[in-house]
Design goal:
By secondary structure, the protein is α/β, with parallel strands linked by helices. Helix 9 links the parallel strand 7 and strand 8. The strands form 3 sheets. Strands 1-2-3-4-5-6-7-8 form an 8-stranded parallel β-barrel, surrounded by 7 helices. Strands 9-10-11 form a 3-stranded antiparallel sheet. It has a 3-stranded antiparallel sheet with strand order 12-13-14. The longest helix is centred in the last third of the chain and has 33 residues. It is globular. It contains 18 helices and 14 strands. The protein folds into 3 domains: 272 residues, Aldolase class I (TIM Barrel), CATH 3.20.20; 50 residues; 118 residues, Double Stranded RNA Binding Domain, CATH 3.30.160.270. Helix 2 packs parallel to helix 3 and helix 8 runs parallel beside helix 9. The N and C termini lie far apart (60 Å). The protein binds 3-methyl-2-oxobutanoic acid and zinc ion. The site of zinc ion has 6 residues, from loops.
Length: 518
Amino acid sequence: MSDQIIIFDTTLRDGEQALPASLSMKEKIQIALALERLGVDIIEAGFPVSSPGDFASVQEIAKVVKSSTVCGLSRALAKDIDACGQALSVAEQFRIHTFIATSDIHVSSKLRKSQEDVVEMAVAAVKHAKGYTNDVEFSCEDAGRTHIDYLCRMVESVINAGATTVNIPDTVGYTTPSEFGGIIANLFNRVPNIDKAVISVHCHNDLGLAVGNSLAAVENGARQVECTINGIGERAGNCSLEEIAMVLETRKAKFGLQSRIDTQEISRTSKLVSQLCNMPVQANKAIVGANAFSHSSGIHQDGVLKAQNTYEIMTPESVGINKNNLNLTSRSGRHVIKHRLSELGYQTSDYDLDSIYDLFLKLADKKGQVYDYDLEALLFFDQQRQDYAHYELVSLQATSGREIIPSATVRLKIGEQTVTQSSVGNGPVDASFNAIMTMLGHEELTIVDFKLDSKGEGADALAQVSVIAEYRGRRFHGIGLATDIVESGVKALIYVLNDTYLADQIDEQKQQVRVAGE
Ligand code: KIV
Ligand code: ZN
């Protein structure tokens, strides 16, 4: 049996489907490229039949990713598989992943079919997918609650039909490690053609056992693990990629297995996914949480100073965290910034030095000292800048305090015009938002989420605001970054406004094409 573990990342499919607002194509491509750099073997880029936007994103990812296999999900239906085949055919290497549920609960209540019919559909789906590629994965949805006899029959049938990978998901995170390991052991003992396919696992984290279950499966012969960055995904999420990768690395002697993951890319990829997905990582999260490598108690600190391995089983550097903070001030030159960014793991192709240096100087003037986390926030902010800006913030003045009515005056450039509006509110952010909404008469836009996050430490940290707004049945996500909280909020709202403006333009163009075609 191979000693290589195949890492299948589904951040852009299982992870993305659970987000409060979907990612833009640009954001999905950014994540896909980060996953490729991380060394992921298979990137599940989306579910092409689910929407034209998903189809287009899968296709674009298939075009740009070269060293990972790009994969698309499909139900066991010809039209889904055709959408996958069409979206992925531009890729250097691609996989079609098709699935159907196999547990009694799903077969009878959801599919309302007989077990016989479900096997037939699965076999037909695999054969249909084989018309597009040899690399076909089949998943038995809710395998964790499927009767073992039926599961064995299904696995044997789809391997006979040509599936090269068979995935055993614990879709609802119900099993325990000994049970789940037992299911995999049973398949290896009972399915006669099991050696003709790679056995994969896909564990959800409803009981906090996703990583434990995946490892138990690996110990019993599974050689592909499906996971996501930061463990994001449906409900309580999926098995976390960084945890699996670091278990295999840190406990190499126990498992004797390896993956292609470049562990030093972990921290950076985690931050990117957290930022773009608007999903903060809990401080005590293993591997990537802010406290994962901090030692608080005096006894622990003393121990680590005497010998690092007293309380550290892996180093922060091994996951790409560099603890060495340089003093960066407005006197630091461009080459220092470039050098620091390269130490943090960024290549010059990841950013525009002129633009980052410009942002750096402005921040250094405001804060005095700029830290690594500030630089990374600026980099992220710069990457998120919109290519189009119908709305631009010209100036903002907000007043608040005890015993006064908060008020704000906002001046925006809207297209070629400059408009100024004042308003009051229950706080300075609310007053600024009210001023903008009054100015635009935007009754259809509703703010559904407003999140404030501090990037760094201390009172002079950068404030990052994420806003999610609903507009004409769709959700839009915007971010704003500044040392001033009110300004960050206004920038985040303007980000959303620019996206809704673009969406309106696209809809209008589609409408014109439709009318012209009638
Ligand atoms: O959880 C699950 O069963 C899935 C399948 C589509 C693989 O996400
Ligand atoms: Zn899943």
